[in-house]
Design goal:
The chain has 314 residues and is α/β, with parallel strands linked by helices. It contains twelve helices and eleven strands. The chain has a nine-stranded mixed beta sheet with strand order 3-2-1-4-5-6-11-9-10, sandwiched between helices. Helix 1 links the parallel strand 1 and strand 2. The protein binds alpha-D-ribofuranose (RIB) and calcium ion. The site of calcium ion has 8 residues, from loops.
Length: 314
């Protein structure tokens, strides 16, 4: 299954093991024409998320894609401590080459705004895999550019699911609730992919073995990334593939059930920071509330094993 024709796409990300899987999935899928990767602090600091984005592109022999430094901290509060889940290098210690290309000198928000102004309106999608700080700054500082985004597909939030930071807070929205509130209230075309579905797309050790057995570089690398995810995790039966669900939705939306909900974001500083509330005066957002988890996982494997060779590691 592939998108009708390649969509101009920007990936905004805090790699992060699951971000890395999503990025490799997008690189392996002909439906995405990736114009750039904008990085944000989240799972780990900005220098490491930027380095990891470059390392993934070097591995995939796609250093034609530029990497941009984005927000090193949330809009107006202290950023989260690095998550142990992703290891000291933010990518589970998996062996990746160092990038030959340095990150661009322009700031992510400045580049994204200018890129959007250069492209026909509605032709660029943003896949958001981390805290929404860069997107919020774009919306506030360059609204005329933000309005030209085709759609934003963002991993974040929890609707009926318990949170993974607070009782109802999911990490990406909790890390920068003010940015999440700006994005939710923006009126832009936003599809939210919350824990309600990402926890149902779970990789098992058997899935890892399937990828490893395939032998193709992308499949083997994703198998290694998931394996490292197991090593750092408490629940060793399976691991939720949060960020790859954003790409999987873009590739095969029919695998997901979407509902429009009127949402608001808790921008307080207590344990509910970043929590989503459904209310009549909330902003309309398309939210993925259901997914065929096994077919989504099969699609991930199909996309990764269909990729023939990867020049940088032939
Ligand atoms: O809650 C899951 C999200 O937080 C994912 O994007 C993961 O990478 C972390 O950033
Ligand atoms: Ca992420």
């Amino acid at each position: 299954m592939t998108l009708a024709k390649p969509r101009l796409t920007v990936i905004d990300t805090d790699p992060g093991i699951d971000d890395a899987i999503g990025i490799l999935l997008a690189l392996a899928s002909p439906g995405f024409s990736i114009a750039g990767i904008t990085t944000v602090a989240g799972n780990i600091g900005i220098e490491t998320t930027m380095r990891n984005a470059g390392r993934l592109l070097a591995f995939a022999n796609r250093e034609d894609i530029p990497v941009f430094r984005g927000a090193a901290a949330p809009l107006s509060r202290v950023g989260p401590e690095p998550l142990n889940l992703h290891g000291e290098d933010g990518i589970g210690g998996v062996a990746l080459p160092e990038p030959a290309r340095l990150p661009e000198s322009r700031h992510a928000v400045e580049w994204l705004a200018d890129f959007l102004m250069e492209q026909p309106a509605g032709m660029v999608d943003v896949l958001a895999l981390g805290p929404l700080t860069n997107l919020a700054r774009l919306i506030v500082e360059r609204p005329e550019a933000a309005r030209r985004i085709g759609r934003i597909i963002a991993m974040g939030g929890a609707i009926h699911e318990h949170g993974n930071v607070g009782p109802r807070s999911e990490f990406n929205l909790w890390a920068d609730p003010d940015a999440a509130a700006v994005a939710v209230a923006s009126g832009l075309s936003l599809v939210l992919v919350p824990l309600d579905v990402t926890r149902r797309v779970r990789a098992t050790r058997e899935f890892v073995q399937t990828l490893a057995a395939d032998g193709k570089p992308m499949a083997v690398m994703v198998g290694s990334l998931i394996e490292s995810y197991f090593e750092a995790a408490t629940n060793r039966e399976s691991r939720p593939l949060h960020d790859p669900c954003v790409m999987l939705y873009a590739i095969a939306p029919e695998l997901f059930r979407i509902e429009e909900l009127r949402l608001s974001v808790d921008t307080g500083s207590g344990e509910m920071a970043g929590a989503l509330t459904i209310s009549p005066d909330g902003s309309p957002v398309q939210v993925a509330l259901g997914v065929n988890g096994s077919e989504a996982l099969d699609l991930l494997a199909q996309c990764l094993t269909a990729v023939s060779t990867n020049a940088s590691i032939e």
